[in-house]
Design brief:
It contains one helix and five strands. The protein is mainly beta and about 70 residues long. A five-stranded antiparallel beta sheet has the order 2-1-3-4-5, covered by helices on one side. It is elongated and about 40 Å long.
C-alpha cells in the first residue's frame, strides 16, 4: 500500500509526498482528501470518524475511502 498525502508546507506550495507506512501510523496521519494507491486501484479518503470504545478510555478510528 502506498499512501499519498496532499500536505501543506510552510510555503504552502501544496507539495505531494509519498511514503509507505504501517496501519497504526496511517490511522494517525490520514486526512480526508488523501489518496491510497494500491497495485490494482486508487482510493480517496472521504471520511475519518473517531468512536469511543465501550470503556470510554480508548477510541477506534474508522477511515472510509472509495
Amino acid at each position: 500500500m502506498e499512501y499519498q498525502s496532499n500536505g501543506n508546507t510552510l510555503q504552502n506550495d501544496d507539495s505531494i509526498s509519498t511514503t509507505v507506512i504501517d496501519w497504526d501510523e496511517f490511522r494517525k496521519f490520514a486526512k480526508v482528501g488523501d489518496t491510497i494507491r494500491e497495485p490494482s486501484r486508487t482510493l480517496r479518503i472521504y471520511d475519518k470518524v473517531y468512536e469511543l470504545t465501550a470503556s470510554g478510555q480508548n477510541f477506534v478510528v474508522h477511515i472510509y475511502a472509495q
